[in-house]
């Protein structure tokens, strides 16, 4: 044990981690800025900003959403780096004009006018300063990234890991939410204990309570013995609730009780029991919208979002693509006993693609290119759907993939074919298709959104 000057004792391991963190952090200081809509459908709206990146466009996942048909879904972003605030056009259809000058990438002056489509924005920096931390390394656990967004995320994960705070991880599918949760666990004092994963979107509503809290013998037909749930299996460690936006409302209250009182009751049990477990949750949904629509409990949302970590999609950090490509090439080269390389021309094609499937899509693309390469220099075709073998001799291609990835490929292909065909039979009627398919309409709507994102 180490001892502070005031006589209080502190764990030496914790002290070492704190010293290490401080030594590997760089800080960005910049003024807080404000964006005001001066002309357009959103005239009068304003946004004061004090984070690393601000996203502007017509899509609802932007920080500033513009109701303007001449504005692209993801039009531009403003990000902070050591030189100041940098505006980047995100391949928008109508471009970005700063002070009457068309720009694609520029550093902003302290005050300027930004025009996008029919909307005019006033950008103005204030006097108040903000401090943001970035780690100097480009890796945290299995997460990779040299961009300022990822290094800021790494700093936040390190800061939060050794607290007891509940964490909500937000991000699109394929960005690395599970890897972020695992990093939080591994860096915490619970790192030697269990890390349990429960995918709320993959478990039927009828059994999810049992999967989460366990059940006693005789609780229901088929319950021939007592069974532990994910919470009890994670005791002393971390429970990662993936896609928590899919959790049924009737179970959400019991998760809230778990967070607030650290107690659970198995299905069929007469009493509660205490359990020490940290909750980390993740979602690719906008939980604020789900709360507004009555699909998610507001009190649970605020208990989960004590700390929120947002993982940026790959399209927002294209500077990380070369690093990720090199990593995947090294991995597959070692695995296959080859030395795979990629030409500058092919790398430029990878940089130009927007990756709706994020890092997972890039990894799959690189692996597929390695598997079907005639030589060691790869030819890549970003944006094309992979051929999914359904059986026979082609099934051997899947044997080069890890089990979970091979299964995901087959399941994704099956889901697309099944529901596309059933919707054709039902003349596009989603309610009828969900009835015939035996799932809830809400679940089918979610599946269709996922399938269309992958197209």
Task: Tell me what you see in this structure.
Helix 6 crosses helix 8 (298-304) and helix 13 (430-437) crosses helix 14. The strands form seven sheets. A six-stranded antiparallel sheet has the order 4-3-13-12-9-10. It has a five-stranded mixed sheet with strand order 6-5-7-8-11, with no helix packed on it. With 455 residues, the chain is of the alpha/beta class. The longest helix has 23 residues, at 403-425. It starts with a strand and ends with a helix. It is globular, with a radius of gyration of 24 Å. It has helices spanning 12-23, 148-161, 177-186, 208-213, 230-233, 249-261, 287-292, 298-304, 321-336, 344-352, 358-371, 403-425, 430-437, 441-454; strands at residues 2-3, 9-10, 25-39, 46-49, 53-57, 64-65, 76-81, 84-89, 96-98, 101-103, 105-107, 111-116, 119-135, 139-140, 143-144, 167-170, 195-199, 238-242, 263-264, 273-274, 278-283, 307-310, 341-342, 377-378.
> Which stretches of 5+ consecutive residues score pLDDT under 50?
1-20, 385-394
By secondary-structure content and strand pairing, the structural class works out as: alpha/beta
Largest sheet: 6 strands, antiparallel
Number of strands: 24
Spatial extent as radius of gyration? 24 Å
Shape, principal axes of CA atoms: globular
Give the arrangement of secondary structure elements.
Blueprint: E1 2-3, E2 9-10, H1 12-23, E3 25-39, E4 46-49, E5 53-57, E6 64-65, E7 76-81, E8 84-89, E9 96-98, E10 101-103, E11 105-107, E12 111-116, E13 119-135, E14 139-140, E15 143-144, H2 148-161, E16 167-170, H3 177-186, E17 195-199, H4 208-213, H5 230-233, E18 238-242, H6 249-261, E19 263-264, E20 273-274, E21 278-283, H7 287-292, H8 298-304, E22 307-310, H9 321-336, E23 341-342, H10 344-352, H11 358-371, E24 377-378, H12 403-425, H13 430-437, H14 441-454
Parallel strand pairs: 5-6, 16-21, 16-22, 17-18, 18-21, 23-24
Antiparallel strand pairs: 1-2, 3-4, 3-13, 5-7, 7-8, 8-11, 9-10, 9-12, 12-13, 14-15, 19-20
């Amino acid at each position: 044990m180490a001892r502070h000057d005031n006589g209080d004792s502190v764990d030496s391991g914790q002290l070492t981690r704190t010293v290490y963190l401080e030594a590997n952090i760089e800080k960005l200081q910049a003024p807080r800025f404000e964006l005001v809509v001066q002309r357009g459908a959103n005239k009068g709206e304003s946004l004061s900003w004090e984070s690393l990146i601000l996203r502007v466009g017509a899509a609802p996942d932007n920080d500033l959403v513009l109701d303007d048909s001449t504005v692209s879904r993801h039009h531009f972003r403003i990000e902070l780096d050591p030189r100041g605030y940098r505006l980047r056009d995100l391949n928008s259809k109508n471009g970005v004009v700063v002070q009457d000058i068309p720009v694609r990438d520029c550093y902003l002056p302290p005050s300027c006018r930004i025009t996008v489509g029919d909307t005019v924005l006033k950008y103005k920096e204030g006097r108040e300063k903000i401090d943001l931390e970035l780690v100097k390394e480009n890796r945290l656990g299995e997460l990779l990234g040299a961009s300022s967004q990822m290094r800021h995320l790494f700093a936040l994960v390190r800061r939060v890991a050794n607290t007891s705070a509940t964490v909500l991880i937000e991000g699109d599918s394929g960005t690395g939410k599970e890897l972020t949760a695992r990093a939080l666990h591994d860096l915490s004092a619970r790192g030697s204990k269990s890390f349990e994963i429960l995918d709320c979107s993959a478990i039927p509503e009828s059994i999810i309570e049992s999967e989460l809290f366990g059940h006693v013998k005789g609780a229901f037909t088929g319950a021939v013995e007592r069974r532990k749930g994910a919470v009890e299996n994670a005791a002393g460690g971390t429970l990662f609730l993936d896609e928590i936006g899919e959790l049924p409302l009737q179970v959400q209250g019991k998760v809230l009780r778990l967070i607030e009182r650290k107690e659970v009751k198995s299905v069929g049990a007469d009493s509660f029991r205490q359990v020490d477990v940290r909750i980390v949750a993740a979602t690719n949904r906008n939980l604020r919208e789900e709360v507004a629509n009555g699909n998610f409990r507001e009190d649970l949302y605020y208990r989960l979002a004590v700390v929120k970590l947002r993982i940026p999609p790959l399209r927002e950090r294209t500077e990380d693509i070369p690093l990720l490509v090199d990593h995947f090439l090294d991995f597959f080269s070692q695995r296959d006993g080859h030395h795979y390389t990629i030409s500058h021309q092919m790398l430029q094609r990878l940089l130009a693609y927007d990756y709706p499937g994020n890092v997972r899509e890039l990894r799959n693309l690189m692996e597929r290119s390695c598997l079907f390469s005639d030589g060691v220099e790869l030819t890549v075709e970003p944006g094309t759907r992979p051929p999914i073998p359904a059986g026979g001799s082609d099934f051997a291609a899947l044997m080069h993939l890890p089990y979970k990835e091979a299964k995901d490929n087959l399941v994704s292909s099956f889901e697309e074919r099944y529901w596309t065909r059933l919707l054709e039979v039902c003349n596009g009627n989603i309610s009828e298709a969900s009835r015939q398919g035996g799932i809830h309409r809400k679940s089918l709507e979610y599946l269709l959104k996922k399938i269309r994102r992958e197209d």
